[in-house]
C-alpha cells in the first residue's frame, strides 16, 4: 500500500505514511483494514463520539495506479442535523511512483459521500511527495463539505523508536479560499501517536489538539485517542 489517501482517519495515516516510499512501479495486490477507534476525528473535529468501527479496502494495480474505499459511521452536529448518525463512504484513486530510490510522488482524487445529508458531499484533489519517513501532501476542494473552496496541507512522519515501536507525528493546516463568510479563518490540527504492530494487528495510542476550526458546530475531539486495526 503506497499511502493512506483518505480525507479522514488521520491517526491511521500517521502510521502508514512512511509506506509510500515502498511503492513500486508495477505490482498488483488487494488489501483491507478493519479498525476500531476510540473516536472518529479528522482535521481537528470530532465526527463520531465513542467507539467507531471503520473499514478500508484498497487495490494497488500496475504502474503505480491504485483505488480504494473507506466506510465509517459519522454524526453531524448543527445545521439542524440533531446529532443524527449516518454512513460515510469515501472512494479514492490515483497514482504513486518513485522519483528516486528514497523519494516518491503521489496524486489523486477522493470523493466523500453521506447517506442522509448529501449537501455535505464533497471531493478533493491531492498531490504530494514522500521520503522514507515523512510526507507532505496538499488537498484542494472546490466545495468543502458543500461550502467554499479550501486547501489543506498535510505534513506527516513516522520515526522508529525500536524494533516494533514507532512515533507517528502529523501537522495539518486548513485554509479557506472563497465562498465563506468573514468568520472563516485558518485552522490547524496536530495529533501524535505511539504505534506498534502485533501480528496482523496495528495498535496505537496518542494525543491530539487543534488550532481553530471553521466547523464551529462540530465538537472538539478528545485529547486522548486509541485504535486497533486488523490487516488482511
What can you see in these coordinates?
The protein is mainly beta. The chain has a single domain (10-231), classed as monomeric porin ompg (Porin). The protein contains one helix and 14 strands; from the N terminus they run H-E-E-E-E-E-E-E-E-E-E-E-E-E-E. The protein has one helix at 10-16; strands at 29-37, 40-42, 45-48, 52-60, 65-75, 85-100, 103-114, 122-130, 134-141, 149-160, 165-178, 187-198, 201-211, 224-231. Strand 8 (122-130) and strand 9 (134-141) form a beta hairpin. The longest helix is centred in the first third of the chain and has 7 residues, at 10-16. It is globular. Residues 10-26 have low confidence and may be disordered.
What is the fold's blueprint, element by element?
Blueprint: H1 10-16, E1 29-37, E2 40-42, E3 45-48, E4 52-60, E5 65-75, E6 85-100, E7 103-114, E8 122-130, E9 134-141, E10 149-160, E11 165-178, E12 187-198, E13 201-211, E14 224-231
Amino acid at each position: 500500500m503506497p499511502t493512506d489517501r483518505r480525507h479522514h482517519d488521520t491517526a491511521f495515516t500517521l502510521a502508514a505514511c512512511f509506506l509510500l516510499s515502498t511503492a513500486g512501479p508495477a505490482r498488483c495486490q488487494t488489501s483491507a483494514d478493519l479498525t476500531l477507534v476510540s473516536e472518529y476525528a479528522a482535521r481537528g473535529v470530532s465526527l463520531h463520539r465513542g467507539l467507531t468501527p471503520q473499514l478500508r479496502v484498497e487495490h494497488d494495480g500496475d504502474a503505480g495506479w491504485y483505488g480504494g474505499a473507506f466506510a465509517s459511521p459519522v454524526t453531524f452536529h448543527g445545521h439542524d442535523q440533531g446529532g443524527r448518525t449516518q454512513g460515510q463512504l469515501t472512494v479514492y484513486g490515483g497514482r504513486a511512483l518513485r522519483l528516486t530510490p528514497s523519494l516518491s510522488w503521489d496524486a489523486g482524487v477522493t470523493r466523500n459521500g453521506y447517506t442522509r445529508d448529501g449537501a455535505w458531499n464533497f471531493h478533493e484533489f491531492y498531490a504530494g511527495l514522500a521520503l522514507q519517513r515523512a510526507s507532505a501532501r496538499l488537498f484542494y476542494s472546490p466545495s468543502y463539505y458543500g461550502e467554499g473552496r479550501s486547501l489543506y496541507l498535510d505534513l506527516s512522519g513516522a520515526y522508529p523508536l525500536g524494533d516494533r515501536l514507532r512515533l507517528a507525528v502529523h501537522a495539518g493546516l486548513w485554509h479557506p479560499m472563497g465562498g465563506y463568510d468573514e468568520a472563516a479563518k485558518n485552522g490547524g490540527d496536530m495529533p501524535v501517536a505511539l504505534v506498534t504492530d502485533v501480528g496482523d494487528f496495528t495498535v496505537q495510542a496518542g494525543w491530539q489538539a487543534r488550532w481553530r476550526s471553521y466547523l464551529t458546530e462540530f465538537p472538539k475531539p478528545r485529547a486522548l485517542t486509541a485504535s486497533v486495526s486488523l490487516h488482511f
